[in-house]
Amino acid sequence: MPVPASIAAAAAEFHTNTGFLERVTSGIEPGQWLSRPHANSNHIAWIAGHLVWARQALIGRLGGEWAHPGLEIFARSAKIDSSVVYPSPEALLAAWREAAGVLDKAMETVSDAALDAPAPPGPPSPNGKLSGMVGVLAWHETYHLGQIAYLRSWLGCPGIFG
């Protein structure tokens, strides 16, 4: 079933982002995933976990079902906690891949009626509908992937675009 037209651009962005997270974290050593340029900054592990958490929330909003334990430490407005043992890069990327497949399916099966319904509380929606929220969440994900690309450069890793 094709993705509804009202979220087709967002679906394409999510699809691109799926591969981009793998690419932008390639070659970063596991210990570097916890490095931060400042105490107020997030590390790569937190950002990646936050993206998985956000995809889990979006899947639910689209009527799909997928849950991964332990994602509450990455929830909106959650702060880095030095007492927390964050998941390994491998675990985060495995959860990312799993969520990606479920999100793709949820975007293919969500109805136009559901997308035209008023947006639930949470992220903003420029059109007041769930479809608008999907677009904002695609932008949100791309924004955080840019943060990881910046951290990659800060860590001294080569750029990913040449």
Q: Tell me what portion of residues adopts beta-strand conformation.
A: under 5%
Please write the string of helix (H) and strand (E) elements. HHHHH
How many domains, as an integer? 1
* Number of H/I helices: 5
So, CATH architecture? Up-down Bundle
Q: Give the number of DSSP strands.
A: 0
Structural class: mainly alpha
Output the CATH class name: Mainly Alpha
The biggest beta sheet, please? none
Overall pLDDT confidence: 96
Distance between the termini: 36 Å
Low-confidence stretches: none
Structure, described:
The chain has helices at residues 8-25, 44-61, 89-109, 112-116, 130-154. With 162 residues, the protein is an all-alpha fold. It has one domain: dinb family like domain (Four Helix Bundle (Hemerythrin (Met), subunit A), Up-down Bundle), CATH 1.20.120.450. The longest helix is centred in the last third of the chain and has 25 residues, at 130-154. The N and C termini lie far apart (36 Å).
Which labels suit this protein?
mainly alpha; 162 residues
What is this structure's SSE topology?
Blueprint: H1 8-25, H2 44-61, H3 89-109, H4 112-116, H5 130-154
Give a brief rundown of this model:
The protein contains five helices and no strands. With 162 residues, the protein is mainly alpha-helical. The model has no long low-confidence stretch (mean pLDDT 96).
